[in-house]
Design goal:
With 118 residues, the protein is mainly beta. The chain has no helices and 11 strands. Strands 2, 4, 5, 6, 9, 10 and 11 form a 7-stranded mixed β-sheet that branches. A 4-stranded antiparallel β-sheet has the order 1-3-8-7, with no helix packed on it. The protein starts with a strand and ends with a strand. The model has no long low-confidence stretch (mean pLDDT 94).
C-alpha cells in the first residue's frame, strides 16, 4: 500500500523560503510520476509541480515558475519541493501525490500547511 507523508510546512514571512519533503513507501516508484498540489482555504486544489521519479520531465504551474523547484532523492525515496520568494498567495495546504503513467493522480498524502505572512 502506497504511503506518502509530507513534512516541512510552517509559517514564513513573505520573501522567505521553505523546503517541503514527501516520504514515499509501499512500492517501487520508478514507474511513477510524482507531484505537488495545493489547496488554499475556500478554493479548489490546484497543481503546483510534477516530475517523473527518475527526475526527468518536470513541469510546474505558471504561478510558481522560477520560484519553486521539484526534485527527487531516489536513495531516500523522497520528493522535495523547494519554495523560494514565497508570497502570501502561496498560503495553502500542500499535498504530495503519485500516479502511474496510465492513471490519474490516485495516491495522496495528508498535506502540510504553509502559511506566508505579509
Amino acid at each position: 500500500q502506497v504511503q506518502l507523508v509530507e513534512s516541512g510546512g510552517g509559517l514564513v514571512q513573505a520573501g522567505g523560503s521553505l523546503r517541503l519533503s514527501c516520504a514515499a513507501s509501499g512500492r517501487t516508484f520508478s514507474s511513477y510520476r510524482m507531484g505537488w498540489f495545493r489547496q488554499a482555504h475556500g478554493k479548489e486544489r490546484e497543481f503546483v509541480a510534477a516530475m517523473n521519479w527518475s527526475g526527468s520531465s518536470t513541469n510546474d504551474a505558471d504561478s510558481v515558475k522560477g520560484r519553486f523547484t521539484i526534485s527527487s532523492d531516489n536513495a531516500k525515496n523522497t520528493v522535495a519541493l523547494q519554495m523560494n520568494s514565497l508570497k502570501p498567495e502561496d498560503t495553502a495546504l500542500y499535498y504530495c501525490a503519485a500516479r502511474t503513467y496510465t492513471t490519474n493522480w490516485s495516491e495522496w498524502g495528508q498535506g502540510t500547511q504553509v502559511t506566508v505572512s505579509s
